[in-house]
Amino acid sequence: MENIEETPFRITHTVQALGSALRGEPQNVPDANGLGSGGRISSEPEKLWFKESSAKNLRNRDFLSPTTVLNTLYADGQVPPAVMVRVQSLRGTGVLPVAGGELIGEGLRVWVDRTAAFQKVLSDVSVYLKPPCQRQGCVVLNCPALHPKPNVPSPDTLTLGQLRTVLLTDHLGALLRRQGFIVSCCPVLPEESDIIVFLRLLGIDWPTVPISWTNDEREENILEALQNSPYREREETDGGRRESEGKNTDGDKEEMLRVNLKRVFQEEQLPGYDPSLGSCTGETNNIDLLTWGLVVNVLTYE
């Protein structure tokens, strides 16, 4: 049997337990309509509780079930005493200790026994440093602030906003690795360049390549994979209608690479599909822009 004392507190577990307690079957004397003061009615909402986050509200409550929710759950919006007892005596795996609850004008408020919660957390911090579960998969983190434009960025050209992006990318990578993911960060930067030395001073271990390294072979492999991909949508555009670097390329045919991301996720049954994803388009002479993209990794990773 799982030892509750060794399970870390989780907000999600607490909210789920509060929801179950609030949905508990009340015992009341029916009224003329067959519903007592705690009579249940249909169409109860899925989200019954809200976790407070503002400093003002946290002074007097940690969770709130709004009046609109209570009116939907109970005919007169009054929580039966039996349900209040269940809410106030909440227990369970990963559930925060409840100090009390009270009906107010805004709804049913609940506050956590913060002293007991802090004592429990500080008594064994190690359980909170472990990831909730070990996952498998590959993730590519793209950091736009470090891409050459056209030169490799340096500490002198890096703005505070760009530095923030780099720090967030590094932090996100560390969190994903702790959860078991294989993380690749891009773009790679030249070894011993000024920006790499600067990032190391900040404790950031960014991937590097030799100064003489070129991306030509990688681009050729990616181009071949995209051209032969079953998810590629055949499409060509008349390059003569465009101008490149001020020169008219009239008469040339410029091949477009268009990949249907929706099909990739659906047919490969990949998790995390975003319905807003459609197709990704790139030009064969600009394949380097897709080198570090997620699309390429989805198509070529096995």
UniProtKB/TrEMBL annotation:
Query: Which parts of this chain are annotated as the region Disordered?
Result: 21-40, 227-253
Query: Which organism's genome codes for this protein?
Result: Oncorhynchus mykiss (Rainbow trout)
Q: Which GO terms describe its molecular function?
A: tRNA binding
In Swiss-Prot or TrEMBL terms, this protein is called: DALR anticodon binding domain-containing protein
One GO process term, biological-process aspect: tRNA C3-cytosine methylation
> What taxonomic classification does the UniProt entry list for its organism?
Eukaryota, Metazoa, Chordata, Craniata, Vertebrata
In this chain, composition skew of type Basic and acidic residues spans 231-253
InterPro entries per the UniProt record, alphabetical: DALRD3 (IPR037380)
